[in-house]
Design a protein that fits this description.
- The protein is an alpha+beta fold.
- Among the domains are: 154 residues, Calcium-transporting ATPase, cytoplasmic transduction domain A; 191 residues, Calcium-transporting ATPase, cytoplasmic domain N (3-Layer(aba) Sandwich), CATH 3.40.1110.10.
- Helices cover 47% and strands 16% of the residues.
- The chain has 33 helices and 31 strands.
- Strands 14, 15, 16, 19, 20, 21, 22, 23, 24 and 25 form a ten-stranded mixed β-sheet that branches. An eight-stranded mixed β-sheet has the order 12-31-30-29-13-26-28-27, with helices on both faces.
- The termini are far apart.
- The N terminus and C terminus are likely disordered.
Length: 960
């Protein structure tokens, strides 16, 4: 039958796509499931006709989530250009190109060189953004590969790709399945209601009871924790609850990162200074040219000469002015930022951090607070039996889960333990190729199965053998907190029970002695058992009791009464801490980062785990969600300095905590794995989602994906983030020194030309080449090549452990610290003094004043000062030496060698293009020797802590 739903039916069906409430009302309006099937042209027994799938996809969409506005490579390039620094560079490039074309004589290359710098930075930025997005899409693809079972055309089809599920499909769900789409439950197990884990959507840790009468709504991405049933699909893809949340998140604007804000300030400051110096230089040089003195007294006005083409001389000054702007704006800065972020991103991938947004690298370095989940992040998300009492004997397990029992259990008691584990559970444990176990279903049941397996049990075989022999099953529910099953055995029927110890004890009158005998359970025995339970609970363990009973007759009558049970034992289960977490938390605290646990678990479990991993201290407090929710914002802000655990928290509690911390000027990182965590992940300065347990929505909302779900990996991201910030600061320290010297020389030489116009010896005309010791092409070499090389060298320094021994950089602290200003001022003053002496006395090198040879000497000294100062720039503190671990940085050393080689070729073979002359060996030695004095000068300044004492925090290279 074709899918010929009418327009009226389609309108009704689309009511199902809005909210859970409207879906439920529409469901009720269809007279329950029967009416819904009629409208959907589906059948509870036979499902849909497979031939109608294309039409259903066209009407209601595919079961796929729209990717959040994936940007093309061209869009990424445009985004990279949308930066203050890049805009100024583009303007400079266009002006320089236009002037060069007008002036002729092949002088277009200056603007072309600036343009090439813009292109390089843009392409590097765009390529890295594109690559990291591709990596994220690959991770999404792997996580999105799920299958389900559907009924189509009367045939059950297993292993169907969840992405092909359509509205009207009948989907069979069993324990452990992930629900592929939103739907209505119309049939469930005869034994019990279905239990659904909706924590990924709602944040609630407790499972939700589902049945066809009172609670039929099922949501995509949630897990079937217990039971089984069939549902009819009503919403797929973007119209499902998960899809709606994803679409809402995509519309949120992101705040600029601390790095972006700081760089914006630096770029604007340098840009305005550059424009001011360039304008002043052009005005001074133009006045000098227009009012050239022919006899030392009388000035000749050149305005009339503009008619014969001599006006092109003014373009020389305009080119110099534009070049000064280009020099002032450090185009190496965006390249340094890009290289540092990209390099850190690749290294962080090795530390299991997939960076989705490059600037998140740096922001993690400024984090002052981390709000961490418990399960899976601090713990292993693997419930494990660690100790307990079986048949009166205590036991413990080793790190591999192997139990060590004081007195070995008798075979009959051991068999009953296996029966309790296998038959009162729908969970399963799968051994993977890497030797690890993959748990499906309730984690507590999985832990009991693992204990049974270690003691020689085989739950698969038992379930297969006993399935047809089950007399009565009473599944676990939140009311009675026990599960029991009665089975018919060859030796006679028996009942097995597992559940909360206090509830199981209420049903017990005997206890197993471990010697194939049962003894009465006295009042003192009960107290002893309860004391054992309390002792286990105080160590943060979840306790479960096991019991059995031999039934009489065929067992059917006795199975109706769950009484007179025999206590088999008490076991303690915990989700173990990850081994590296306590050290990682301690490292965060040393780094000045406040770590909080935000979890849906009860306060007792949360506080115990928090103490174990070092989060909860004697002065810290723990608050439960309901109490937190009743408090005003001001009351919470007063408690925040001591709030270390937020237990039984809802998604709104987590979001509110993040918001209040940000209002207190904290830089907040948040971990999360569920759909419910998405708003908090998006709100945080850095959202950290879990790559293994995380939902697609959580990962889309995050900035960094922790691939191994491990808190220790977060600590590595902090270290790399701080390294990014320091490396960018090193480059700025290096770059600003160049800028100060270059701008001062350019302006000073322009003023000098105004008072002492340089005339050509032969023609007596104004000689623009002699107007400045650093011509445009030399400035561009210093600015473009050395800056780019400097960015590559200083932006790829490896982080040291000392980075985690200092406080986070405060958001209000500028990009340039007082100590950096000190270093810049000292080095630039020294360089200007040396260059002024050489400029003032050309005879020091046997040169003619203002000749090419004279200016080549000045240029070579200037460049070599920067080469040596590159080593000084590795220090941001008062550590005297600057060569520590430098040989380990192959990129740094490679850049230094490359710079030296290019400088030699530039001077010796540049000729008219670079306006240099070859230098003799002695001149090379003398110029390099003078420039090398920057190294001992930096050593003295730092060792004597001149002007500024050492900051009370360690630098990343301090351990050298």
């Amino acid at each position: 039958m074709p899918f010929d739903t009418t327009k009226e039916d389609l309108a009704k069906l689309h009511d199902l796509q809005v909210t859970p409430e409207t879906r439920l009302r529409a469901f009720e309006g269809y007279r329950g499931a029967s009416g819904l099937f009629e409208v959907l042209r589906s059948s509870a027994l036979n499902g849909i006709f497979p031939a109608t799938c294309p039409e259903r996809e066209e009407a209601f969409g595919k079961n796929e989530y729209a990717e959040p506005d994936a940007k093309s490579f061209a869009e990424l390039c445009v985004e990279a250009l949308n930066d203050t620094t890049m805009i100024i560079l583009c303007v400079s490039a266009v002006l320089s190109l236009a002037i060069g074309v007008i002036k002729g004589d092949g002088e277009w290359y200056e603007g072309f060189a600036i343009l090439m710098a813009v292109v390089i930075v843009t392409l590097v930025t765009a390529v890295n953004e594109y690559k990291k997005e591709q990596q994220f899409q690959e991770l999404n693809k792997v996580k999105g590969e799920t299958t389900t079972s559907t009924v189509r055309g009367g045939t059950e089809q297993a292993g169907v790709d969840s992405g092909t599920v359509v509205v009207g499909d009948v989907v069979k769900l069993v324990m452990g399945d992930k629900i592929p789409a939103d739907g209505i439950l119309f049939m469930s197990s005869a034994y019990s209601d279905m239990q659904c884990d909706e924590s990924s959507l709602t944040g609630e840790a407790e499972t939700v009871k589902k049945n066809a009468e009172n609670s039929p709504m099922l949501y995509s991405g949630c897990l079937i924790a217990e039971g089984q049933g069939h549902m009819v699909v009503t919403s797929v893809g973007d119209t499902s609850q998960q899809g709606i949340i994803r679409m809402n998140l995509a519309d949120r604007e992101e705040d600029p990162t601390p790095l972006q804000e700081r760089l914006e300030v630096v770029a604007e400051l340098i840009g305005w200074v550059g424009v001011a110096v360039a304008t002043a230089s052009f005005v001074v040089l133009t006045i000098s040219w227009c009012l050239e003195s022919s006899d030392g007294v009388t000035y000749n006005y050149h305005w009339s000469e503009l008619q014969d083409g001599s006006w092109k001389g003014l373009l020389d000054f305009l080119i110099i002015a534009v070049t000064i702007v280009a020099v002032a704006v450090p185009e190496g800065l965006p390249l340094a930022v890009t290289i540092s972020l990209a390099y850190s991103m690749s290294k962080m991938m090795e530390d299991n951090n997939l960076v989705r947004k490059l600037h998140a690298c740096e922001t993690m370095g400024s984090a002052t607070n981390i709000c961490s989940d418990k399960t899976g992040t601090l713990t292993q998300n693997r419930m494990t039996v660690v100790k307990g009492f079986l048949c009166g004997s205590a036991f413990t397990t080793d790190s591999q889960g192997h139990p060590s029992v004081d007195n070995p259990m008798m075979p009959e008691a051991l068999t009953r333990l296996h029966m309790c584990a296998a038959l009162n559970s729908n969970a399963s444990v799968q051994m993977m190729e890497n030797g690890r176990h993959n748990f499906h279903g309730n984690k507590t049941e999985c832990a009991i199965l693992m204990l049974s397996n270690q003691l020689g049990g085989n739950y698969d075989r038992l379930r297969g053998d006993m399935n047809a022999s089950i007399i009565k099953r009473n599944p676990f529910n939140s009311a009675n907190k026990v599960a029991s099953v009665a089975v018919k055995l060859a030796k006679g029927p028996e009942m097995y029970m597992t559940g909360a110890p206090e509830m199981v004890l209420d049903h017990c009158t005997m206890k197993d002695s471990g010697k194939n005998s049962q003894v009465a359970l006295s009042a003192s025995d009960r107290k002893e058992v309860l004391d054992q339970v309390t002792g286990l609970a105080k160590t943060g363990l979840r306790t479960v009791a096991l019991a059995y009973r031999v039934l009489s007759g065929d067992g059917k009558q006795d199975a109706e009464v769950v009484e007179k049970m025999v206590l088999l034992g008490i076991i303690g289960i915990k989700d173990p801490l990850r081994d590296e977490v306590p050290d990682a938390v301690a490292a965060c605290k040393r780094a000045g980062i406040f770590v909080r646990m935000v979890t849906g678990d009860n306060v007792h479990t949360a506080t115990h785990i928090a103490k174990e991993c070092g989060i909860l201290t004697p002065n810290g407090i723990a608050i439960e969600g309901p109490e937190f929710n009743k408090m005003t914002d001001e009351e919470i802000k007063q408690r925040i300095p001591h709030l270390q655990v937020l237990a039984r928290s809802s998604p709104n509690d987590k979001f509110r905590l993040v918001r209040l911390l940000q209002e207190m000027d904290e830089v907040v990182a948040v971990t999360g794995d569920g759909t419910n965590d998405a708003p908090a992940l998006k709100k945080a300065n850095v959202g950290l989602s879990m790559g293994m347990a995380g939902t697609q929505v959580a990962m889309d909302a995050s900035d960094i994906v922790i691939i191994d779900d491990n808190f220790a990996s977060i600590v590595q991201s902090v270290k790399w983030g701080r390294s990014v910030f320091d490396n960018i600061r090193k480059f700025i320290q290096f770059q600003l020194t160049i800028n100060v010297v270059a701008l001062t020389i350019s302006f000073a030489s322009a003023v000098y030309c105004a008072f002492y116009p340089p005339n050509d010896t032969a023609t007596k005309a104004f000689d623009t080449e002699k107007c400045t010791p650093l011509n445009a092409i030399q400035l561009l070499w210093i600015n473009l090549i050395m800056d780019s090389m400097g960015a590559l060298a200083l932006a790829t320094e490896e982080p040291g452990e000392g980075l985690l021994k200092r406080k986070p950089i405060k958001p209000e602290e500028g990009m340039v610290s007082p100590m950096m200003w000190r270093n810049i001022a000292v080095q630039s003053s020294f360089q200007l003094l040396v260059l002024a002496i050489i400029f003032g006395d050309a005879s020091l090198f046997g040169s003619e004043a203002q000749s090419r040879h004279h200016y080549t000497i000045i240029f070579n000294v200037f460049v070599w000062c920067q080469i040596f100062n590159e080593f000084n720039s590795r220090r941001l503190d008062n550590t005297p030496g600057c060569f520590g671990k430098v040989t380990e940085s192959k990129i740094f050393m490679g850049v230094i060698v490359a710079t030296v080689v290019v400088q030699f070729l530039f001077v010796q073979y540049g000729g008219d293009y670079t306006k240099t002359v070859p230098l003799k060996a002695g001149e090379w030695i003398r110029t390099i020797g003078i420039a090398s004095l920057t190294i001992p000068l930096g050593y003295v300044v730092r060792s004597q802590q001149l002007f500024i004492k050492d900051e009370p925090q360690e630098n990343g290279l301090k351990e050298d």
